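YM 10:42: GSCFA domain-containing protein sequence, as discussed on the call
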Amino acid sequence: MLWTTSFDIPEGDNKITHRSSILSIGSCFSTMIGEKLAERKFPVLNNPFGTIFNPLSIANLLEDSALEMPVNTDLMLVRDGLYLHYGMHSDVVAYSQDSLERLIQKKQQQVKNSLEHASLLLVTFGTAWVYEYGEKGQIVANCHKQPADLFEKRLLHPDEIQKSFSSFLNILREINPNIRVILTVSPVRHTRDGIPENQLSKSVLRLAAHDLTETYDFVSYFPSYEIMMDELRDYRFYKEDLVHPNAQAEDYIWQRFKTAWIDSKSFQLIEEFEGIKRDLAHRPFNPDSPAHMKFLDNLQKKLEKYNRDFDFSKEIDQLRKQTQYRGK
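YM 10:58: structure's back
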């Protein structure tokens, strides 16, 4: 008896290795995949502008970075004494307009460098519902808890997404002819828009992603949304909010992504690094026992070994703190 509907996911060409350079941008699903890649020591720039949900804002941020466009100060605002930008998440914040402008320019330069040298760009579309701000009707990435009457809400058309992303992808192909792009639709349900409205939004995003993969041979699609809706069709795979995939679902989708897009030659290193993470999280019954002392010594040697080729400075510092705490 089958308890789930499974389906084949085409494996990508030019798969990811530990020598690849990756840029992940978009909804919180991009952040999750980026974190799992970073934890396994893949070089990744992960959502530098914070979580961005709608595809037009994603495309604008990428294109402005690639072309070194000046920061649009008309979209800056002050909230609770902090300066924010409507074009990005509240993670991008400063204490003055000048500081915010410099911060955004720094992030744009990071993204530009990444786009020019990356092996892979991972983009996650979260929602096709957008908010237009002001008389010019500029689409914002985040309303930053401002009064609702400042914005007009509407649904994007697939053609708008196609046009906006085509503009960016044409630029991207010029500055980095060898890059691969993976598009995916976030499995996170935007139920605040309404259940039918969320389904409509996801359909628009999926159609736009399909059109882009048909138009550009270096653009592929990874079905994270479809995995959640079909293979994991059960509320036990959601967090308590019944909106976000839980850790079990995230791990399952990660395994599917790993099989489809990561070179099998990297699997052994992935297993080693996952083991190190588990070892660091280990809590012994007796931290002063000879067995645990030996365990820590072996872990330190393992970290020092891999630190020659990968950045394990945080893990080494974490182990050092554990050792110092034990000695008190």
